[in-house]
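Regression report. Comparing outputs from two consecutive submissions.

Submission 1:
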Amino acid sequence: MTATSFPELHGDLPAQEIHISEYGAQKALAILSQSGKENAGVRVFIKSGGCSGYQYGMAIDDRELEGDTVVYDRGVKLVVDHMSLPLLRGSEVDFVENMMGGGFTVNNPNATSSCGCGHSFRTDGSQSPDGQGSGGCGSA
């Protein structure tokens, strides 16, 4: 496991692998406090699927697995597996609200295209992995 220390406690901040917005942190902390899981964090991951090739996923998780990167930002523990990290490096987890409700989203500087719903993306304009991703928005 690779761990990033509390960056707000250090004068010279290393570039974080992934971070969370202030509003996203408020929402995440509220959800985590109600989860009943001690030492839980937000696991952010990538899976194949969706209309653009990859899909974002998030879950409350109290486990840290071999190869995970753990980042503490704004009081929130963010956990990313080693396969997802290259696609998420530099991303910001945020919470957005609109007329259809609200939810977490990922602002990813590595995405070169995404679908209209914002839940799937492609990184290089190439075909979807394993031939997936030809379905509608958010399909798996």
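Submission 2:
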Amino acid sequence: MQTDIDPRNLIGRKAFDRKGTKLGTVDEVYLDDATGIPEWAAIRMGLFGRDAFVPLEPSELIEGTLRVPFDRSLIKDAPDFGVGRHLSPEQELQLYHHYGLDIAPPPPLNHNSTNTTTQEDP
């Protein structure tokens, strides 16, 4: 998704699935803890429906609406963690798996262990 978009501008926008079916309205936007980049949107699905989390990458903001490249049924079945709370890394991982999105594991810690002993040839 375009990273120059203010996440506050997403609140209240209509959201549509990949087929153009209306999903609902963006209720909340969740930022990545490390980067501050908008990562997830909670979409209010129906008047009495629950909020469903959708990934903002690879979603697009087109002509003032959020286009989510997944089917409504998949979005509707996304894990429900409730809105207004912080998403834990484990919850985010569940959402990534639900949507079939591959995420790169964090890079391994670089332990520059050097061998301080030297062996001499006899």
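Expected: both submissions complete independently.
Actual: both completed, but the second showed a warning that disappeared on reload.
Relevant detail on submission 2: Residues 104 and 110 are 17 Å apart (CA to CA).
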